[in-house]
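> @MW can you paste both from yesterday?
MW: sure, first one:
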Amino acid sequence: MLAPYEEAKQRLKKYFGEGYATYIMSSFIAGLLAAFLGLPFDNAKTKIQKMRAGADGKMPYKGFGDCLLKTMKNEGILGYWVGFPVFYMRVGIHAMTILLASDLLKHAIWGRK
């Protein structure tokens, strides 16, 4: 989340200059990217945590990779991003808060840009 934030800041400064609007937009982009890239893995983790043995006693997934492959097969590519709005509210807002607080502290305490 740090690399996309810094990259977005550098690119947006060309259009909006140095300021809070640039920081807010950059943190939004970084949070969106963090949520987008993290959700497939979080969905697989959750499915593995919630799996129960079937009637035959076999578990539905053999491991993390198997879970990702079966998700693709059964739900399609969009199955990886089921629940994106809720996940963004958790991860994206967290990323925005942390990144903005970090920049505010840099400016207020250390006087860095």
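MW: second:
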Amino acid sequence: MAATDRIFKAYDIRGTFPEEIDAPLCRAIGSAFARFVAAGPAGTAPAGTVLVARDMRESGVELAAAFTDGVLDQGLDVVDLGLASTDLVYYAAGALDAPAAMFTASHNPAQYNGIKLCLAGAAPVGEESGLAEIQAMVDGPPAAPAPAPGTRREREVLADYVAHAHSFIDVGALRPLKVIADVANGMGGLVVPAAFAGLPIDLEVMFPELDGTFPNHPADPIQIENLAALRARVVETGADVGLAFDGDADRVFLVDERGEPVSGSLTTTLIAIGVLEKHPGETIIHNLICSKALPEIVREHGGTPVRTRVGHSFIKAVMAETGAAFGGEHSAHYYFRDNYRADSGLIASLIVLERLSRSDEPLSSILAPLQRYAGSGEINTRVADPQGAIDRVAAAYADHPQDRLDGLTVELEDWWFNLRPSNTEPLLRLNLEAATPEACDAHVAEVRSLLTEA
């Protein structure tokens, strides 16, 4: 078996196949997850059924089958959802009130695979919410099989998920729009055509074949080079918007009609406005590296912004505590209370199309008033001592308001920045925002110079 420390991450399980993650290990993980959910973790009811699904990676067939065997061996039943996007699985975990395992490595290259786990109701399973316990069981002695094995059956939920996604918008308000969706040979090739069928949308899907070798480009739309084909096609066809999905289609990035990428912060702001129009006065969650324009605009539209740490388990926890209607991250994860607080690239896309339909202006014009500051994007710097570097930067700006909610955030007169350590590498991640691009560049250089001081 592969060493579990290498593949159990903060929010999921992920590694190269078969060197780090293989069938025997997945069977052990299935057995451990079955025991975990059968015990009723975190005050939940004991589960007797586990949902299992996978993305288009060829290794997923073998790994999901082994995981299923581990679950069945412990006497729990399995409902096999087959090929699915991650947000479809979260929906199923909520609608069917059952824990779930999604086999995917998301945006990672073809040689990777992994597992995203959740509890009934799509409650997250992360390092602090069960994943460490599951890892300990995997590392421990094998469990004895149940007196009687569980049973396996298949279930199709795509049509139900599409209907659910449509419930977030007024379908009748949509107008004819030209949409290019680059699904990068990922699971968007399954869910996007199904969701757009019957809508007044002229949809063109780029690279729709489900192919876990990613023959056209990596399914990682946060890297701007992977948007090149979509940007060119949007301009070439005169499309109203481009949608770029990652490998398991739980994230979506926008490209406007000029072929320009739209940040996750800006998309979160646009969706938040739409949510607040339908749910006036509600709370909107945003992580601390989103643009400061986001909370400003939320307040202007009558909402209450709440700032959180980066990461889906933190977003979902704060959404549960506050009852927030919506939450967004700069990394293009968009969470909806009425979607069991889970993220969905598909629901986000439909809300954007509704916003476009309600305006006569192109997307770039709709977004222009929302883009009030210049952002650096996330800049990684390798340092020998990340915490020491953070403390040095904090001391350099000791006269300015700062907090340690997640790394270091410093607020200055007309700019701010956040500096966070990587969970897995000796890296610091800098996100900075200022009044102008020139000021942003200058301040980035200023902060980075402090990181490399002797």
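> thanks! The chain has four domains: 4-156, 178-259, 264-370, 374-451.
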